[in-house]
């Protein structure tokens, strides 16, 4: 796409725009100093936004900024990632540029057609590229008419602005007040960002209009009344003597158009239909004129203020010109012009998406070539992450008609998948159901049923998923030559879906396992190991023996670590089993491999999922520092679009923050919007809000929240080894209602599965002990908790503190010191500030005047993000390697390491390695 060039007659003198210009200059000053800033200009058409962007571009260029400008038109919604093409297309298509190194290579490969990109990975790649450009010289990114941008571009810009912080980057965005709710939400997010400022240019005053009119024979008051002070209309009225409202200005444009020769009108209307810009050659072909004629017409149309040539493209002079011309065309005429432009683009060898953008605006005619062209463009849109556009294209391809029934079934399936990804699962799954009924080939039917099952599972419609998987198994049973591998994969998917409803082991899984188990483990296939992973979780949740053995066989001594495990949902089924079975070391090994695979493949989706899963594992098993580092990485991935397991990420991240005493951070995380989620998962995020309310000292609000939002709905916390009733009991205790707290904890114990992890049981026991009034019974409970968990768990530290307080009450100071020191060791190692404070208070009472444990408390000063970067740096990785491994930019790494060195009072990585090596577990440093 090409930014709208505006001829001199349409460029208003920048009168009464001092506030907007000053904001742009401030943003450039801040960006030059390493503080990214955004200016949003919002106003009605013709108010002068593009002129302000021109001024920003000139000022930035004069100051040595590298400028990248993008612009959108009424046609832009029919293409994906127009922002990327406008900003970086010319550079990517030119000779190799060192700016496209590392993750930024994805941007170049996408533009060159060598790769597709998931939105999250592309957002990270763009962030990397912009930050790399800003290392050499400050950067100005300009976006005009964002309200017309494609969905993917708006989301990408929103993500990018959230990530920019210390980069030398300024962004100036122009937009109209949106009418579409989704667009309005995106624009509101951009305008309300912490480093953004919003300006809304006002209409010009009478004095300004008089200045513009100069010596012309015009009445400024009449111009003001007719134009409303909108600069575009002011100039039109002064230049052409129109005397009415802006609607009459459009009429004036059409009048000037009507005075042109017929072929000139054809050229203008065709250019308006093209909107984004079209080469003179293609324009001539589409308009039905010769190259010589188009060369003669363009200067005339420029003089008339209708078209202008900028570079290799012919474009209308202003968006209002486009809208005015299009308003004068009937629906049939528009469809005819779109068909001509599509034909001319196809003859010129244009990309399928560019052609399809016009073909979807034509009337259906049973054209097989058109249907296939649009469907191919739909697939490209889906691969590049624009599911909404893909769904529209697939629907239009079906409506075109003329294609065989089996191809119609395929389009139904693809449109359905696109609609599910676009956030409309009900409509998408129904289309996929229709696809399973189209065609007679049983192999095709089975494959489509499996796709329906997978889509339904990811959408949280487990009933539909179960029906689809069952249908696939029945269909496959009638197909000759179906392999054991195919059968087992379907069974694994079926079992995984059924585990959502019930923890009971599945009879068919057991029967299949009996066929596999006699085999030597070294002969297990990936499908076999997937089934073992599902069985391990089923056994663990049901409390049946044998889950650990199945989990270890699923690991296959590392044979299961293969390319793609980071993107395999069954990987996380196995990790859940390892977590639930308290196989911590094995789970960390498996998920670290998944993280490595995600980094190798550049998949932000897999990186976010693996970071969440390993972080949850670590938090659940008491490794707070390392767990928080992983979960903050998952939260960063969520800003790139990752949303799988988001509520569970919220829960464990909030829990980790509360353990470390960062209550406000926990609240910030708990209030995040997870987006659409299955009810069971959504309730996990609600539990994070409950924990925060209790920690923030709002027990009455916490109790009301639990009753309204958690008490009666489905909840998957139990499958994570957690229970929302424990913080609820604490809320009752805060209100001085111990009996109510005990009732809640008894309910938690009764509802907990017998197979619940040891640390989960220890949590309940410590909570019950805190309510116990009999010292002997209380001591017995604390000792029972210590039998369940070792000194790597916060529950053990809490039990030790309970025993220390009991010993103090009995006058046994040495015993109290022993227990309090054990608690303090854990608290200092893991940054559990509240626990450390309590332990020091007990020690001070038990041994007045004696110092606590010698410890390097400086690490407690580091945030989880700083610690994550520091740990990788301590292993000798260079800043660029660290940035790639953590899906951040080099500038972000430098910023965090600067904070680390300052807080720790060190000057070298050798000193950093010494501090971390003396205090961190080996597993923490496993990057």
From TrEMBL:
PROSITE patterns found in the cross-reference section: HTH_LUXR_2
InterPro entries from the UniProt entry: AAA_16, P-loop_NTPase, Sig_transdc_resp-reg_C-effctor, TPR-like_helical_dom_sf, Tscrpt_reg_LuxR_C, WH-like_DNA-bd_sf
Ranges in a coiled coil: none
Keyword Cytoplasm: no
GO molecular function: adenylate cyclase activity; ATP binding; DNA binding
Listed GO biological process terms: regulation of DNA-templated transcription
Xref: SUPFAM superfamilies: C-terminal effector domain of the bipartite response regulators, P-loop containing nucleoside triphosphate hydrolases, TPR-like
Keywords per UniProt: ATP-binding, Nucleotide-binding
GO cellular component: cytoplasm
Superkingdom of the source species: Bacteria
Domain (HTH luxR-type): residue spans on this chain: 855-920
Protein name: AAA family ATPase
Organism phylogeny: Bacteria, Bacillati, Actinomycetota, Actinomycetes, Micrococcales
């Amino acid at each position: 796409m090409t930014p709208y060039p505006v001829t001199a007659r349409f460029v208003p003198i920048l009168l009464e725009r001092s506030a907007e210009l000053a904001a742009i200059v401030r943003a450039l000053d801040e960006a030059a100093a390493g503080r990214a800033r955004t200016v949003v200009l919002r106003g009605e058409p013709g108010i002068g936004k593009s002129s302000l962007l021109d001024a920003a571009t000139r000022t930035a260029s004069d100051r040595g900024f590298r400028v990248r400008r993008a612009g959108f038109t009424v046609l832009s919604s029919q293409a994906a990632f127009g922002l990327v093409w406008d900003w970086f297309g010319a550079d990517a298509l030119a000779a190799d540029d060192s700016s496209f190194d590392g993750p930024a290579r994805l941007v170049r490969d996408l533009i060159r057609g060598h790769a597709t990109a998931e939105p999250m990975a592309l957002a990270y790649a763009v962030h990397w590229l912009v930050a790399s450009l800003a290392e050499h010289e400050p950067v100005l990114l300009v976006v005009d008419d964002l309200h017309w941008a494609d969905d993917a571009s708006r989301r990408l810009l929103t993500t990018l602005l959230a990530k920019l912080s210390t980069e030398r980057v300024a962004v100036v965005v122009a937009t109209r007040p949106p009418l579409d709710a989704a667009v309005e939400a995106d624009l509101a997010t951009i305008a309300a960002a912490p480093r953004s400022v919003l300006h809304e240019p006002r209409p010009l005053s009478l004095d300004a209009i008089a200045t513009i009119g100069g010596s012309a024979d015009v009445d400024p008051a009449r111009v003001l009344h007719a134009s409303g002070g909108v600069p575009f209309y002011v100039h039109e009225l002064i230049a052409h003597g129109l005397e009415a409202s802006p609607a009459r200005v459009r009429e004036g444009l059409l009048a000037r158009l009507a005075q042109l020769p017929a072929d000139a009108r054809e050229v203008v209307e065709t250019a308006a239909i093209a909107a984004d810009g079209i080469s003179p050659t293609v324009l001539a072909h589409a308009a039905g004129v010769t190259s010589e004629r188009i060369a003669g017409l363009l200067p005339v149309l420029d003089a008339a203020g209708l078209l202008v040539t900028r570079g290799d493209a012919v474009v209308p002079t202003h968006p209002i010109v486009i809208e005015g011309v299009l308003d004068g065309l009937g629906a049939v005429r528009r469809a005819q012009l779109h068909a001509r432009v599509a034909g001319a683009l196809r003859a010129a060898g244009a990309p399928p998406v560019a052609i399809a953008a016009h073909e979807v605006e034509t009337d259906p005619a049973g054209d097989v070539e058109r249907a296939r062209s649009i469907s191919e463009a739909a697939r490209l849109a889906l691969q590049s992450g624009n599911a909404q556009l893909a769904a529209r294209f697939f629907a239009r391809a079906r409506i075109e008609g003329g294609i065989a029934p089996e191809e119609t079934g395929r389009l139904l399936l693809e449109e359905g998948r696109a609609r599910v990804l676009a956030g409309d699962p009900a409509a998408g799954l129904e289309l996929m159901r229709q696809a399973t009924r189209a065609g007679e080939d049983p192999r095709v039917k089975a494959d489509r049923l499996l796709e329906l099952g997978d889509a339904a599972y990811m959408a949280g419609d487990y009933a539909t998923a179960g029906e689809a998987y069952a249908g696939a198994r029945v269909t496959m049973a009638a197909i000759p030559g179906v392999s054991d591998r195919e059968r087992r994969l379907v069974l694994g998917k079926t079992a995984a879906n059924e585990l959502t409803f019930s923890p009971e082991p599945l009879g068919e899984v057991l029967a299949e396992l009996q066929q596999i188990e006699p085999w030597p483990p070294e002969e297990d296939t990936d499908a076999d190991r997937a089934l073992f992973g599902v069985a391990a979780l089923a056994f663990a949740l049901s409390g049946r023996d044998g889950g650990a053995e199945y989990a270890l066989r699923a690991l296959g001594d590392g044979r299961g670590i293969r390319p793609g495990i980071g993107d395999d949902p069954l990987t996380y089924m196995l990790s859940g089993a390892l977590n639930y079975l308290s196989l911590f070391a094995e789970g960390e090994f498996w998920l670290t491999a998944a993280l490595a695979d995600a980094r190798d493949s550049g998949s932000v989706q897999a990186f976010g999922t693996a970071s969440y899963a390993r972080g949850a594992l670590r938090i659940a098993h008491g490794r707070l520092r390392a767990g928080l580092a992983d979960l903050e990485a998952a939260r960063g991935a969520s800003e790139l679009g990752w949303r799988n397991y988001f509520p569970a990420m919220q829960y464990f991240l909030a829990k980790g923050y509360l353990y470390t005493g960062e209550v406000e951070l926990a609240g910030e995380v708990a209030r995040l919007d997870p987006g659409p989620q299955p009810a069971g998962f959504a309730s996990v995020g609600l539990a994070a809000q409950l924990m925060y309310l209790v920690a923030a000292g709002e027990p009455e609000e916490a109790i009301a929240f639990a009753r309204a939002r958690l008490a009666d709905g489905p909840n998957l916390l139990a499958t994570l080894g957690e229970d929302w009733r424990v913080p609820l009991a604490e809320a009752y205790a805060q209100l001085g209602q111990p009996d109510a707290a005990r009732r809640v904890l008894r309910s938690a114990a009764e509802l907990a599965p017998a197979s619940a992890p040891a640390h989960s049981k220890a949590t309940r026991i410590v909570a019950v002990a805190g309510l116990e009034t009999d010292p002997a019974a209380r001591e017995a409970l604390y000792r029972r908790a210590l039998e369940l968990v070792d000194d790597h768990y916060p529950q053990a530290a809490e039990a030790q503190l309970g025993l220390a307080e009991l010993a103090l009450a009995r006058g046994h100071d040495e015993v109290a010191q022993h227990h309090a020191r054990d608690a303090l060791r854990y608290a200092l190692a893991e940054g559990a500030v509240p626990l450390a404070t309590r332990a020091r208070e007990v020690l001070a009472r038990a041994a007045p005047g004696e110092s606590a444990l010698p410890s390097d408390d400086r690490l407690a000063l580091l945030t989880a993000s700083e610690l994550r970067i520091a740990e990788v740096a301590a292993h000798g990785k260079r800043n660029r390697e660290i940035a790639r491994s953590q899906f951040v930019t080099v500038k972000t790494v430098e910023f965090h390491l600067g904070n680390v060195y300052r807080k720790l009072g060190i000057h070298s990585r050798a000193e950093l390695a010494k501090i971390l090596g003396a205090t961190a577990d080996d597993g923490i440093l496993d990057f």
